[in-house]
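Practice problem: predict the structure.
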Amino acid sequence: MDMPPRRLLVALSGGVDSATTAALLAAEGHELVTVFMRNGVVGSAASRSCCSLSDARDARAVADGLGVPFYVQDMSKGFHELIESFVSDYGRGLTPNPCVLCNNDLKFGELLELAHDLGCDGVATGHYARLDQGRLLRAVDSHKDQSYLLHGLTAEQRRGALFPLGELTKDKVRELATSFGLKVATKPDSADICFVPGGDYRAVVAERLGHLGQTGQLVDESGKTLADHGGVGAFTVGQRRGLGVALGHPAYVTEIDPGTGTVTVGREDDLSRTSCRVGQMLFHEALRDGDEVLVQMRHHHDPEPAQVSCLDDETIELTFAAPSRAVTPGQYAVCYRDDLVLAGGRIEKEISR
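Answer:
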């Protein structure tokens, strides 16, 4: 990164990406303050997730090795609010992405406020994304790109953000970590949501709610009842495993009605939708009726061409060039032009098949 020395806050997670970020910035002569976010999750689950005690130790070791200040910031209140939102969404038949809210509210919300309080010019993280004069773009490493998860950052938050790894591949990051002598250079990446180790979100929902949301029936596309179920929080659109029904062909969840508890299952082709409505939009660039965009509807999803219709100041409709199987209420639809993030919001419902 080509910029004069600055005082920066670096969010250290205990992983190789944030460690390399700190090492790169220190090598460039920046004055660093490093912070580890304590999320307040305790017990066996926390020990297997990121933000664990062992991660805190790794983060401190990185800071000590670089000779920079290290602090632990208690973010348990905001983090537990995030978990409650996650649980509530599943109980309402939605499929949330808590990493988006964590970036919006915690990493570039609370941490950015802390950075300003400490006299820092911004917050640097190990995210794989690029910023160009406040515009958010995909990372060079398409396999690690996290611009989708960062689309909710406001213009002010983007001005205070730094992503030094955006121009690098993951292999290069590990190579640099080794050259800097970082002990986390070969540490495996964390793949789970930090409070859902092993991917068992149902256990988190059941523990927090005391149930899995509205009970009801599994039905086929004709409306025929196939079985009872214990709550809509156990399902997500597109789910194939754990349905407990035999249709003579692979079965997928195609629709969830949280009001009645009805969960519809069908063939993979039944997932196809021609359009969807997206609300709570944040516009990085203005969108107009008829604009052609590439839309990404999950973190790991190949973008699909779609046309925009503007319904109001915060809502758009996307009509896909070809029927899409990725429409999942509760997830985010992020619009791109090539590598540039144009806008993003939350998928509200499927409109038509």
